[in-house]
TrEMBL record:
Gene3D superfamilies in the record: Outer membrane protein transport protein (OMPP1/FadL/TodX)
Protein name from the UniProt record: PorV/PorQ family protein
Domain of life: Bacteria
Signal peptide coordinates: 1-21
Keyword Signal: yes
Alphabetic keyword roster: Signal
Organism whose genome encodes this protein: Hymenobacter polaris
């Protein structure tokens, strides 16, 4: 017989904590983004754009892979693990005046994640594509979402998302927007249960090479709007220090990043005055593609 008491405890106690942690919308991946308060809509050129905003893949010029771990409030049932890989397609066009290097056919990525424990869990498998067009990055993601509840079965939905980024002031000011679940995918007909539809939009300002300032708004169509903000400072080329805050989850965040050759390691922590400590860790790897054979 199903243990309905355990299931009820999870739904009424743990599930609301998870929803508050993610702001009712798509999860933010990568410890760098988490340390910046989750303000990731404008971040580009890294593998976690496959989850945060596919448009950010457009400026990735090397194959990349990443692994990500997070724990919310020291509760094992709120663990999340994710992995991603991204591959530029075609020839990488070199950097020109005012334009970064880019892959001529865009960047294709795949990302998978699992959240939760035995009683309740979510699995997402997604494919994303990003392309650089002038001063604009555009991208999209298609994912299969599976929600499982012990002894009560699973539900699946196909979720589509679109994103864009534009350099308003090249090298200085960037605007980003991301619409998650634009089709309002349905999980169940009972009470018309749907995957949250969320719009995120933000700005990134770089006053100097060492400083990055981020501000972002998030709106779930069925919930109040929230704000996220982050600051990244590079005291040395291979070291980053980060701070952030998110109003929806009422959490202050902080973290550090270290680059070692082709590897990047990031750690972040967040603090909620009632729920306590959350921790995030990610490792990214970029490598050179084999050189193309000379034309005959």
């Amino acid at each position: 017989m199903p243990n309905y008491l355990q299931i009820a405890v999870y739904l009424f106690l743990l599930a609301p904590l998870a929803a508050q942690a993610q702001g009712g919308g798509p999860a933010t991946h990568g410890a760098r983004a988490q340390a910046l308060g989750g303000a990731a809509t404008t971040l580009a050129g890294e593998v976690w754009a496959a989850a945060n905003n596919a448009a950010g893949l457009g400026t990735l010029t090397q194959p990349a892979a990443g692994a990500y771990l997070e724990n919310r409030y020291l509760i094992p049932s709120l663990n999340l693990v994710a992995a991603a890989v991204a591959v530029p397609l075609g020839v990488v066009a070199p950097e020109t005046a005012g334009q970064p290097a880019r892959a001529s056919r865009g960047v294709l990525a795949a990302e998978g994640q699992r959240f939760g424990g035995a009683l309740y869990n979510e699995v997402r498998l997604g494919a994303a594509y990003g392309y650089r067009l002038g001063i604009i990055n555009i991208g999209g993601r298609l994912e299969m979402l599976q929600v499982s509840l012990q002894d009560l079965g699973s539900r699946r939905a196909l979720v589509g998302s679109l994103g864009g980024q534009a350099e308003l002031l090249p090298g200085r000011l960037t605007f980003g927007a991301y619409l998650y679940n634009l089709t309002q995918a349905r999980l169940a007909t009972y009470q018309d249960e749907r995957v949250p539809t969320v719009l995120r939009a933000g700005l990134a300002y770089r006053p100097s090479k060492q400083v990055l300032l981020l501000a972002e708004a998030e709106k779930d169509v069925e919930r109040a709007a929230g704000l996220r903000a982050g600051l990244e400072y590079l005291p040395a080329p291979a070291v980053a220090v980060r701070l952030g805050y998110a109003t929806l989850s009422e959490q202050a965040t902080a973290g550090v990043g270290v680059a070692a050759g082709n590897f990047h390691f990031d750690y972040a922590a967040s603090w909620h005055t009632v729920l306590g400590l959350s921790q995030f860790l990610s490792a990214n790897w970029q490598w050179q593609r084999p050189a193309s054979p000379p034309a005959e």
